[in-house]
Specification:
Number of helices: 3
Shape: elongated
Mean pLDDT: 89
Low-confidence stretches: none
Helix content: over 70%
Radius of gyration: 28 Å
Amino acid sequence: MSFIMKGDYECSAHYIRTCILGEIVLGEINKLLSAVHDDEDAFVQRSMEQSAASHLDEVKKAKRLLSKDERRIEELDKLFTRLYEDNVLGKINDERFAQMSACYTDEQNKLKAEVVKLREFI
C-alpha cells in the first residue's frame, strides 16, 4: 500500500537495463578517447590545470584548518593556566583538576600532531 501526500506524485518503477547502461558508458569512454587522440596536448594541459586547481583548493583548506588548530592550541594553554589557578585557589578539587588537565593535554597533543601533518602538506 502506498500513501500519496498532498502535492506528491506517485512514482512508477524506473530502471535501466545493464546492457544499455554499459553501452552508454562505453560510448562516453570512446568519446573521451577520441578527444584525447585528436588533441593529446590539450587534454594533458587541461588535466594538469584541473589537478593544480584541485591541489590549490586542498592547500587552502589545509591552511584554514592549520590556523583553526593553532588558535585552539593557544586557547587550551590559556584554559590550562586558568584551571591551574582555580586549583591553587581551591575553586576546584585536585581530582577534577587532574581529569580536566588530562582532557586538555590529550586534545592539545592531538592538535599538535595534526598541525605537524598540515605544515608538511602545505
